Amino acid sequence: MQTTEIETLVNDIQKAFDRKDLDAISQFYHPDITYFGPAFPAPVEGLEGLKRAFDHHFQDPQRTRTSIKDINVRHLSDDSFVVHCLVEGVRIIYFSEERFRGRLTRVFIGPKNRPRIVHEHFSLTQ
């Protein structure tokens, strides 16, 4: 995949998260995904586990708007690449807003027409 295609992919994933669209989000992940993030106390293993974790997380009344910046792509092989980027956003819960900023790393594997995230790590920096 070309870098511009990867940037579009990364933004499409984020839009699905902002909509809390679990079906759309699931299409981007490999069945053997390992996910690390501040919303969960331990790593989440496997697509079914991730779907349960996200579904539970999406029950929260918060809405989130995010933007992805400084996308850096590193190709590992013909069928794998790593994306590092900055995530900035705002969580809106009822009438309050909380801004956040973090670093996101995703490892994709699979054919160029349908790469899947096999490892993801998100950490807050503020």
Kindly describe this structure:
The mean pLDDT is 91. A hairpin with a 2-residue loop joins strand 3 (63-77) and strand 4 (80-93). The chain is an alpha+beta fold and 126 residues long. The termini are far apart. It has a six-stranded mixed β-sheet, with helices on one face. It is 27% helix and 49% strand. It has three helices and six strands; from the N terminus they run H-H-E-E-H-E-E-E-E. It has a single domain (3-124), classed as Nuclear Transport Factor 2, Chain: A, CATH 3.10.450.
Key attributes of the depicted protein:
126 residues, alpha+beta, Nuclear Transport Factor 2, Chain: A
Q: Specify the biggest β-sheet.
A: 6 strands, mixed
The end-to-end distance, rounded to whole angstroms, is: 32 Å
The 3D shape can be described as globular
E-strand count = 6
Mean pLDDT, all residues: 91
Structural class of the secondary elements?
alpha+beta
